[in-house]
Amino acid sequence: MSKSEIFHMLDEAKALNFVAYTVWGGEPLMRKDIFKILQHARRNDFYTSIITNGILLPENAEKLAEVVDLTFVSLDHHSEYHDVMRGHKGTFKKAVEGITKLRDAGGRVVINCVLSKLNQDSAKKMVELARTLGVKIAFDQMEVFAGYNNELALIADERTEAFLKVREIKNYGRYVLNSSEYLDHIVNHKEYSCAQPSIYIVVTEDGKVTPFWCQKTNNHLGDLRKQNLNEILNSKHLKQFVELAKGCSLCSNSVTVETSTYYSMRRFFTNFYKWNNPYLKFLADFAF
Would residue 50 be called left, alpha or beta, if left means φ above 0 and alpha means ψ between -120 and 50 degrees? Predict the structure, then answer.
């Protein structure tokens, strides 16, 4: 999408009461006009975040701190073995340098660690790295793309063991950002009702509106180069997606699970009156 197309999308989203904008990719810092886009999002009062692999972060950290509320840096190992995983020498060093510079410039940073067979035993040392850098860390499991990375995905027992360790670490520390409910879903296969289509939309680089890694459908919901955002939100395709998602808990990516569990009215009131209110902690982690 061109810069003007993205500006138009953000203006429409603001008028329709969207409140947040996340940029990811690919690597968004490769885009030459990315800071103009992020500035436009901030002018529209969006809570703005970005997901980066960190290679271009050192030279962009100070500018990023001015226009982004939260930066997720993808880092999957606590050593230069991360370079092997990423297939690019120097990735680990650049990411750590970028995190440090962004933190020192006043930016809020979270390490995003995806667990697979390549790093399934690294949770504890990843949390230690986050603590050393003075940032928080969020864990996710690797999304499977058929015919590409199937053999790297954790099987059920491995996934349970890895996230049990994450939950254990969370219970005695303050650096793990994942909610207890997300970790319970992974460890105990706790069900939830998917609220993805009621909370957020995903827009691809060519303007298509799609579900986010949905296990039931990957059909396009609309096209922002042919329709306005309001038309898509009120289309039969999105309404069908809403119905399809109700009661579903097949997806285990943190985005879908976290947003859906927080969106649940029953869970909201259950958690709201807890002594250790997770919503206040969520706000402290993300917003203040």
Answer: beta
